[in-house]
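Section 5.1 Outputs to date
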Amino acid sequence: MFNPTDWLRLIMAALVILPIVTVIRESGYYLIATLLRGKNKHLIIGSGPTLFKIPTIEVRRYFFMFSWMEYDELEPRNRFWHGLIYAAPIITTGIFAFSVNSLVLNEVLSPNIFWTTFIFYCFYYMLFDLIPVYLPDGQPTNGRAIFDLIWHGERSDYKKARLEQEAQEEETNEDESDRSNTEAQEETKENRDRDDEERDDHTNPESSREKKHSDNEEDKQRSYTEAQEETKENRDRDDEERSDHTKSEENK
């Protein structure tokens, strides 16, 4: 059950401690970008409409929700600088967490709700950054970026681009393979049908003979019918001529 103290701790954490810890984390990127002479540095705290801004830092109305750091692409020449960029937020958060924790343990700071909650969220962000995984949007955590840099010898964004290119090439090869298989299957089917027709002609001569016999019968029947028709016409014509001669004799 939440008591009044817990509610106070929750509100303080959401509106004060989390924004402070987030700014501390993002300041790591800011310091390294400054060290590497990065241009157009821009630290954004919060979201929504702009509340106020100073050079390179902007605070928005919902300051307690999100924060992030923007800067132009840096081009360090070796993996050390790349690793330092990824490790910067972990280092800065860790420095504050261990420093405040040490001050509390030595009773320099009072172990009250504010400082214990501050230490908790500092270590939370450190743990989150150190876990070597890819986030749902495909972006790596800083721990994953450092792991890829050390283990694979390349930046995570380069690795991601390479894997996407390999996947695209593999998909293209599969499409070409499927298309080739389809064409080959169609050709095989046509050849099989043609072979079946030729095989049927050789292995079933009776059907061929029956077909020829049927054709001959039809020709014969057609010939008989034509001959019969001609005979009938001749007979009718003879009957007419005979009838004409008979009538002429009677008249005489």
